[in-house]
Every structure is written in C-alpha cells, then in structure tokens.
Known about the structure:
Layout: E1 2-10, E2 17-25, E3 34-46, E4 49-50, E5 53-67, E6 72-82, E7 87-96, E8 100-110, E9 118-126, E10 134-144
Antiparallel strand pairs: 1-3, 1-10, 2-3, 3-5, 4-5, 5-6, 6-7, 7-8, 8-9, 9-10
Amino acid sequence: MNFSATLICPIGDPERNRISKFQVDNGELGSDGISLVLAQNVCTWEGFEINGVNVTGSVMTGFGPSYQNGLWSAEGYDFGLLANGDRYLAKWSEKGDRTAVRGSWKLLMGTGSIAGITGEAKFEERAPQPGDTSVRATVTGWYILRAGNPQP
C-alpha cells in the first residue's frame, strides 16, 4: 500500500523534545569541530494510516555527528503508535544542511493487526530555522502486511 503523510516534530518543547550535544572534536580531525548529538522527539502524524488505522504518534530517538559548517547526519528508531494500540518499529537515517533534511525510513516490525509489516519511505523537510517551533517532514513510501493479518 502506498502512502504520503506529514510527520510533525517539536523544537524547543521540553516535554516533547530532548537534545544532548557533546563536543567531541575541537578541529583536530580537519573540520571546524564536531559535536555528537543525541535527540528524542515525541512527534505526531497527519494523513498516515496503516491497515485503515490512524498512526497517532511516534517517539523518534536518534544520534549522529553535527559539524560547525551546518552539515549533519543522524540515524535512529521510530517507535510508532496506532489508534487501536498496535505499535511499529522503524529505522531511519538522514542527512541535512542549513536548508534541507532528506532521509529514509524502513519498517522493521509491528504488533497486533500489523504484525509482520514491512515497508520503506523517503522523507524531506525544510531544515529548522531560528524561531521555528516544529519541523514538518513529507514522508512518501509503501508498506506490505503479512498475508492473513486481521482487518481492523
């Protein structure tokens, strides 16, 4: 099943967005300096259904290097929740600069009516700018349910 949806993640909300940044290089590795960033966001979805059930939220947890020149990369996991209580686990990776973020997302597993789910997607968003309170990613992809999964 093909899908296109919007993932909305907060910026600067201490209840829904946690970031830790650790300076790991002062320029000795040939760049202006590297920080390792660990982040967790409680995000929401618009227009995303799996097997006819709304995906209500995701806890995105990831880490990666951030460079002084504005480039970064990250990878992590998306623990998603559907309106009926089913859950999924996906892995994501992204690369970004001061203008845009692009990445991929891969469904690894699900529970209940989405047990055995597989799928992949690409996403793109405008990079966060000063004053932004959230980022909105356009996510486009597909998923397949294991034969015999119950309908909601």
